[in-house]
Design a protein that fits this description.
Layout (H helix, E strand, L loop, with lengths): L1 H15 L2 H7 L4 H15 L4 E3 L4 E3 L1 H27 L5 E7 L1 H18 L3 E7 L6 H4 L3 E5 L7 E9 L1 E5 L1 H7 L7 H4 L4 E4 L9 E5 L2 E5 L6 E2 L2 H9 L4 E5 H10 L3 E3 L8 E8 L6 H21 L2
Parallel strand pairs: 3-4, 3-5, 8-11, 8-12
Antiparallel strand pairs: 1-2, 5-14, 6-14, 7-12, 7-13, 9-10
Helix pairs in contact: 1-2, 1-3, 1-4, 2-3, 5-11
Length: 304
Amino acid sequence: MPYLDSIRVFVRTVELGSITAAGRDQRLTPAVASNRIKELERRLGLRLFNRTTRKLVPTEVGRLYYDYATKVVDTLEQSEAIVSGYSKAPKGVVKVTAPLGIGRRIIAPYVPEFNDAYPDISVRLRLSDRKVDLFDEGVDVAFVLGDLRDSNMKIRNITDCRRVLCASPDYLSKFGTPETPEELISKPHNCLLLRFPGSEEYYWNLETDQGQQKYQVVGSYDADEGDVLTGWAIDGRGIVNKPYFEVSQYIQSGQLVPILENTPPPVSRFACMYPHRRLQDPKVRIFVDFMIKQCKQHVQSLNV
């Protein structure tokens, strides 16, 4: 189906803004992906992109063609999914995204087990602490931790994850152990923050006798990768706010010490979400059911 394959490449090129990225997404070399676009333009007798040295922009007719091409691709994928479901042998690709900590510790270890059980289903796992647009990235399933506000997505809860404030013994011996949340600010303590475009971590929420309170903490270190913050905390650079399962091994070894245990951060909601129509696809439904079971058992075993 070279024509349909060319349409797929075209759709992903529009969505990703790059022929190279679209080729990578479809597991094609840049040269093959570029040829697919050229073949499509020859077939239609129209230019679909305006090419500059800096970016690739759809022409007016290219944007119009994209609107219809996406419907063709979606319909084809759904029909293939339904047929594979009837054959009881789901096959194809499931595109998955997750935050780095969850992805490394919980999702990734179970992907080989899933693949052993369903060898005809390929999992493409992309890890990032940044927020991912499921539609723009063509993601089937996103594992998320924290506030979920996207009403356009179907959400399935997995479990609640306890959070903890902690620091190294060296840091606490040098700067003191805060006894109240207010001391995080009045001292002030060096708070290690997870920040990236769109991040809301400019304050910490803590549970107090008066309910949840916001504390405008500050620090000389921030990063867009959670494990970097953990490393800095172990190195004595500051206080970190983490899901317990990400730091449990360091707390047990004594490299990190929990603080303010009477006023902890609120638990984080661990869930997976996906566009509503994705769960009509048997391979996605099988993957979601499998991972929810494994994730729930894994996190609950550490959430002590």
